[in-house]
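Re-run with default settings, no changes from the original entry. Doing this only to confirm the output is reproducible before filing.
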Amino acid sequence: MLREVGAANAPDERALIADLAKAPFRLGEVSKKWRLAVIEWPYLLIAVCAKDGRWFVLRFECTNYPSAPPTACVWEPDRNLQLPFPQWPQSRGGRVGAVFNPNWKDGTALYLPCDRQAIFGHDAWLTTTPALIWRPADGISQYLEIVHELLNCSDYASPAFPAA
């Protein structure tokens, strides 16, 4: 799964692999917040645990990492395609529904200030949600911590359909 950093890797891939070896990412794995599934550069699959024990796989696109934020969508690895919307995390009417919004960009990205696709056109986020803006020094763990928090907050509701 995790490949060693080598001369054959592009600089952005080397940076990602280095971040995956750092303490914040490893601590998230050890505490079962998330787990690395696979790297197929420039894509990365990471499963994040929700409070009901479901694991939601995010497919990150990491070109130009970490200077450019990654972008992620909810993924079904067995079929290698986006997870059907009814199986996405559900909301009780709050922030989870805004972030996991299948109507935004057809579900191809999460509506988060740290997501490459979401930040464009949302200049107000720089002042209203500065803690959620992508920080290259914090890397992929920053994005994962935000998603894990959402999947474990009181607004999260289990999808009506069984986990895949």
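The helical segments are 11-20, 23-30, 95-99, 116-119, 125-128, 140-151. The chain has a mean pLDDT of 93.
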